[in-house]
Amino acid sequence: MRTSVSAPQITRLYLLRHGQVEATWRGKIYGDLDVALSDRGRRDAERCAHQLENVDLAGVLSSGLRRSDYGAAQLTRDRELVPVVEPRLREIDRGAWRGHTFAEIDRDHAGSWSRWSKAPEHRAPVSGESLADLARRVRPALEHWADRFAGREWAAVGHSWVVRVAVCDALGLDLNQAPRLDIRTGSINVLERLAPGRWLCAGTNLDHVPALGTWRGGASPK
Q1: How many domains does the chain have?
Q2: pLDDT (tens digit per residue) in 25-68
Q3: 3-class SS string, the chain
Q4: What are the CA-CA distances from residue 57 to residues 17, 53, 155, 185 (Å)?
Q5: In whole angstroms, what is the distance from residue 109 CA to residue 103 CA?
Q6: Which of 137, 142, 97, 136 is nearest to 117 (CA)?
Q7: Which residues make Cβ contacts (< 8 Å) with residue 56, sequence separation at least 6?
Q8: Beta-carbon neighbour count of residue 137 at 10 Å?
């Protein structure tokens, strides 16, 4: 007698990067500072919400920073949902680098930005986080909420390096590869968890949303 094998229960996460920030902060390092969105950034968030309007979201998370909160509010505006603040999804803490341009960091701190960009996993600015530090809070947060929304679709509005850490894990890349990932502002990035600790990347910077249970791209489960 043949025993049927059930398909893995897929939990899909729409991991959004917030929209464009206001002009005074472009080209500067702001990390976890509470920087506001530009007009375009607000339109970015509204566009993402429109793209996901037909998705049956079980929940929506925000990092608690204004630029993330706005995107989460757009996603829940026409749903019977209230955004949940998950502080573990805040952007990386840039410590002493906050408020400076990349060129200023290299000039005033002997090329420290260039060195960080080549091997960011364990390097960090004074009083700031490395990518390994960031991953230690992002990974358990995503696992926790994937358990909470098991077999469902859910969304989180996060930040550049938060998304990069999650995508690196789904692609089986080490965190030193994270700077090579192009994660645009106002982007939708789709991750699917097949089992605890087993994620795959269904797509990054998507302009439309594939159906649940399908994925595209060259990635395979980790």
Answers
A1: 1
A2: 999 999 999 999 999 999 999 999 999 999 999 999 999 999 99
A3: CCCCCCCCCCEEEEEEECCCECHHHCCECCCCCCCCECHHHHHHHHHHHHHCCCCCEEEEEECCCHHHHHHHHHHHCCCCCCCEECHHHCCCCCHHHCCCEHHHHHHHCCCHHHHHHHCCCCCCCCCCCCHHHHHHHHHHHHHHHHHHCCCCEEEEEECHHHHHHHHHHHHCCCHHHHHHCCCCCCCEEEEEEEECCEEEEEECCCCCCCCCCCCCCCCCCC
A4: 17, 9, 7, 21
A5: 10
A6: 97
A7: 152, 153
A8: 18
Q: What is the pLDDT confidence band of residue 7, given thresholds at 50, 70 and 90?
A: low
Query: What is the number of residues in the chain?
Result: 222
Kindly report, residue by residue over 151-161, the tens digit of the pLDDT.
999 999 999 99
Q: How many Å is the Cα radius of gyration of the chain?
A: 18
* Distance in angstroms (rounded) separating the CA atoms of residues 143 and 120: 23
Tokens 């929209």 sit on residue: 19
Would 44 be classed as within a structural domain? yes
Domain extent for 19: 11-203
Kindly state whether residue 211 falls inside one of the protein's structural domains: no
What would the two tokens of residue 96 be? 């002493």
The residues, ordered by sequence, that sit 6+ positions from 107 with a Cβ below 8 Å of its Cβ are none
For residue 187, the domain's CATH number is: 3.40.50.1240
